[in-house]
Amino acid sequence: MSVRELVVLGTASQVPTRHRNHNGYLLRWDGEGLLFDPGEGTQRQMLRAGVAAHDIDRICVTHFHGDHSLGLAGVIQRINLDQVPHPVTAHYPASGQRFFERLRYATAYRETVPLTEAPVTGDGVLARTPAYTLEAHRLSHPVESYGYRLIEPDGRRMLPALLAERGIAGPDVGRLQREGSLNGVTLDEVSETRRGQRFAFVMDTRLCPGVRTLAEGCDLLVIESTFLDEDERLASEHGHLTAGQAGRAAHEAGVRHLVLTHFSQRYGDPDEFERQARAAGFDGELTVAADLVRVPLPKRSG
């Protein structure tokens, strides 16, 4: 049975708090797992969330600030300790190659798992698989930073009433899907396009074209909202978004489910982030992330 969900491992910005770990997010996409921005403590959070090293197929780092990458050393060593039976690919800004190498080889250990380094050198496609296309787009932060976007290929949805009209049933449905036509009936005549699902991960950034490109038409958008709107000046100075800016960007992009995260420790009321995102116009499903929650992708529309 396929599972598509976001497992939130940590939601703090800059420093962990009593209730929030450094960043860490695992996207389960059917049989694959993509780990985003493993900050300090990610390995322990994985244990608490029931996430194993075997669940990781790709690691995607947006940028090399500590709260988004210090957990790499432990995660990579755990992948090798547990002898994960499949290769793992790591994506990260090419300008941070020296940081990745330092974290990968922070201490001595025995390498048992092939780890492919696939640094990001600019906007574009990073990988194509039968299940998804993975893209990266540049964001606006004091150090080079990229957001990630995952797009499922469009498929076909069979229409039972039209199949019945043409006398197609049972194994013939599968044959029609495979061959494209059967007894003079084409696949297009008895089906419709099923739009592929879209997911985006947007961390430390000011508003910029990359935010809009990543968020466009997403079923699930994970986006930083480090500051509340009254601190918009601070957000801009440090290369971050406010809750209102994140909500407005999601609204304009037609996002179905918005996940706000990466909260400054200066704020005590998480509900205020939702209030400000709503006030900015976002009226879809909204989650103010907390450590160890699971957020399923929305069911397909239509």
Task: Give a structural overview.
With 302 residues, the protein is an alpha/beta fold. The chain has ten helices and 18 strands. It has helices at residues 42-49, 66-69, 72-81, 97-104, 160-165, 171-179, 209-215, 232-238, 243-253, 271-279; strands spanning 4-10, 24-29, 32-36, 58-60, 88-91, 115-117, 124-128, 133-138, 146-151, 155-158, 181-182, 185-186, 191-194, 198-202, 220-224, 257-261, 285-288, 294-296. It has a seven-stranded mixed β-sheet with strand order 6-5-4-3-2-1-18. The chain is globular.
Between the first and last Cα atoms, what is the distance in angstroms? Answer: 21 Å
- Weakly predicted, low-confidence segments: none
User: What structural category characterises the helix and strand content?
Assistant: alpha/beta
Report the sheet-strand fraction.
Answer: 25-35%
Largest sheet: 7 strands, mixed
Q: Enumerate the strands of the largest sheet in spatial order, edge to edge or round the barrel.
A: 6-5-4-3-2-1-18
Number of helical segments? 10
Helix content class: 25-40%
Q: How many extended strands?
A: 18
Round the mean pLDDT to the nearest integer and report it.
96
Order of helices and strands: EEEHEHHEHEEEEEHHEEEEHEHHEHEE
| Overall shape | globular
